[in-house]
Amino acid sequence: MLKNEYKPRLLSLGVLNPRELLARSTDAGHKRFTGRGPLSSLPLGETDGMRVVVKQCLRGGLIRCLSSDIFCGGNRPFDEMCANLAIVERGIKTAEIIAAVKETLPGPFYRAYLFSLELSGCVDLTSYLNLLREKSPDQRFRAKAGIFEAVAHAFTAMHRSGIYHRDLHLKNVLLRQGAAQKAPEVFIIDFDRAVLKARLSPGEKLNNLMRFNRSIEKYRVFSGAFTRGGQMKLCRAYLAENDDAARLLPGALRRYRVMMKLRRLKWDFRARTTGKGAGLI
Q: Do 97 and 81 touch, CB atoms closer than 8 A?
């Protein structure tokens, strides 16, 4: 599935053989990123500087131990591209998917690939916070000014558009720094399991916020770069714009605390035994 305006350039690039494109990721002009798996950024043409990110869809959760890159049934890449189109039309800032490829295997099995326009100058929220650790306290304070409010406002815009992001975590929030003293531009990515509705209920909004807070708690165990103050500032900014969700907060917090105690035990054990960092989010 290709967007017509990019079709000639995508075919010239070799979109119909995505595995070969990923295998050539060390070639000149290619850049590499990391997500759930490796991502390659390639020039989309030779004149305008436009680039496309090639992503192989990988499974999360325990099922990835059986098969991380093979899917069974459905049309995952095409469904995600259609959802992305609807999300862009609702005015949400995200990476625009311009192609989806399904590589069929014997039986109902397949591999899936997505091609998105690169958001130049962006880093994910964890990388941004890790870079700040090298700066002085004053520099960190000024760099963080407005970040958490901007992220909260982006979540509010997403939820008011009726979008429930089922995998909302720190690495799916990208920042692009603006001019001095201005808050960064916020992009939300990876809507592969998103639910699109006419309107979200207050409970759905709050559950999505709690899902994001879970990733912050996990990141703090393995890295510690996200302070409790920053976490609270983000939550307060979001709840100030969503009174209906704020009214459900007391009950949600009781359930959340019980769940987090169990998860922290697992994360603490994992951190001690593996020594791995925030990449486990």
A: yes
Q: Tokens 């990733």 belong to which residue?
A: 215
DSSP state of 2: B
Tell me how far apart the alpha carbons of residues 81 and 113 are, in angstroms, rounded to a whole number.
10
Q: Please, what sign has the CA dihedral across residues 18, 23, 25, 28?
A: negative
Number of domains in the chain: 2
Domain of residue 47, residue span: 4-117
Tokens linked to 55: 């992503």
- CA–CA distance, 96 with 48 (Å, rounded to integer): 17
- In this structure, are 270 and 240 located in the same domain? yes
E strands, 162-272, in order: 163-164, 173-176, 185-188, 195-196
**What pLDDT, in 10s, does the model give residues 126-150?**
888 888 888 888 878 777 878 899 9
Centroid of chain to Cα 179: 24
Same domain, 163 and 61: no
Angle at 237 between CA 262 and CA 201, to 5 degrees: 70
